[in-house]
Design a protein that fits this description.
This protein has about 425 residues and is α/β, with parallel strands linked by helices. About 25% of the residues lie in helices and about 35% in strands. It is built from eight helices and 21 strands.
């Protein structure tokens, strides 16, 4: 069986400062008229390679996730596959009809109504009118735009626009579906519908390339992943391996259990976050004691303070959060303080985690600082099975005040 998508030695170069537009015949004519005057201007502009030597194959029916940091080349790759922008070098072979949902505005004619755009997109995919008729009711019902179906889409809100665009792309049954950050627009219910529909598309045997920063959605929908780093393929293969590599690289700058920073001279600031696990090398045995220490400095008097610790898993899902509210004004004057949070029995599922720390005044007050992805650690079972866990609730036992040393052990769990 031949691959439905083949990408060989693909390169894409942009010129910094040069306006990039969707390529059309009008653009080609405009470029030709500017050509005699362009050489000198080009010499003052740098070159930027958005994609470098990209090669991969996708078999029919595969669902591939494309991940990477902002600017890694994910959207550029999908635009080239959609024939919106041409590559600088390389070869692309597509053996099937392609539908894409890349950004609001792509693929729609602004002057046409929602109904007319459904038929336009179907015609572009090579579908007969009878085939589009069979799907039109499903598209309208999914998009929830029946009231505005005969209104030009230029009057649609971004949410209506995206709902209709996704419904068209997912329901007109192309062999290849390219989706870029569809979850970035729309409410929670629409996002759930999108994920459910993409799951149905995958089960129907169609090929899907899905770009997203939502690792939970990626791990749920795809079989394999491509990890792009600075325009090149950093890893390709099974989703768990690729996602783990991406997350490890994302957090590698903060791999230590201790976060340190210099005190600010004019703003309240966290200067140290330290995680004390039960084992060395960032490992913690499930149900063993665990401590988190937070140092913060107050260069000026504040109303009160609130420190929130949020523990997330490797996919960014919140697993545990708790907050300390300084209701007794213990830490409102100028000085340096330490908050120590103790868990006599800290329990989480086996896996990798990290800590986010929020430093604010109580709700409605000033926001001071957010530290993300600090103090990564891994929970292990140490020979125990899940059936051996003894679940007990956390209890607050006491608050201690070491005011003479300007050090507070404020919260013990």
């Amino acid at each position: 069986m031949l691959p439905i998508i083949e990408v060989n030695n693909l390169y894409k170069k942009y010129r910094i400062g040069e306006k990039q537009s969707y390529y059309s015949f009008r653009d080609t004519l405009a470029d030709l008229t500017k050509l005699p005057f362009r050489q000198k201007a080009k010499s003052n502009k740098g070159e930027f390679w958005a994609l470098k030597d990209i090669s991969f194959k996708v078999m029919p029916g595969e669902v591939i996730g494309i991940i990477g940091r902002n600017g890694a080349g994910k959207s550029t790759l999908l635009k080239i596959l959609s024939r919106i922008t041409p590559p600088t070098n390389g070869e692309i072979i597509l053996r099937g009809r392609v539908a894409s949902l890349l950004e609001v505005g792509t693929g729609f004619s602004q002057e046409l109504t929602g109904r007319e755009n459904i038929y336009l997109n179907g015609a572009i995919l090579g579908m007969k009118r009878a085939e589009i008729n069979d799907k039109s009711d499903e598209i309208v019902e999914f998009a929830e735009v029946s009231k505005f179906l005969d209104t030009p889409v230029k009057f649609y809100s971004s949410g209506m626009y995206m709902r209709l665009a996704f419904a068209i792309a997912a329901h007109l049954e192309p062999e290849i579906l390219l989706v870029d950050e569809v979850l970035a627009v729309g409410d929670i219910e629409f996002q759930k519908k999108c994920l459910g529909k993409m799951g149905d598309v995958a089960k129907a045997g169609r090929t899907v390339l899905f770009v997203s920063h939502n690792m939970n959605a990626i791990s749920t929908l795809v079989n394999n992943c491509i990890f792009l780093r600075e325009g090149a393929i950093a890893e390709i293969g099974k989703k768990d391996v690729v996602i783990n590599k991406y997350l490890e690289e994302t957090f590698k700058e903060k791999e230590k259990l201790i976060y340190r920073d210099k005190p600010s001279t004019n703003l309240p600031k966290i200067t140290r976050v330290q995680l004390n696990t039960s084992e060395p090398n960032n490992y913690h045995v499930n149900s063993k004691p665990l401590e988190i220490e937070v140092d913060f400095t107050l260069p000026k008097k504040i109303r009160k303070n609130c420190i929130t610790l949020l523990i997330r898993d490797k996919r960014g899902i919140a697993c545990l959060d708790f907050s300390y509210f300084d209701s007794n004004f213990l830490c409102s004057d100028i000085g340096t303080y330490t908050l120590i949070c103790k868990f006599p029995k800290f329990r989480l599922y086996m896996g990798k985690y990290h800590v986010n720390v929020y430093f604010t005044e109580p709700p409605g007050g000033e926001f001071f600082q957010l530290l993300e992805n600090v103090c990564p650690f891994e929970v292990i079972m140490h020979g125990k099975s899940r059936g051996d866990w003894e679940w007990q609730p956390f209890t607050t036992t006491y608050i201690e005040d070491y005011s003479s040393g300007n050090l507070y052990n404020k919260y013990m769990i």
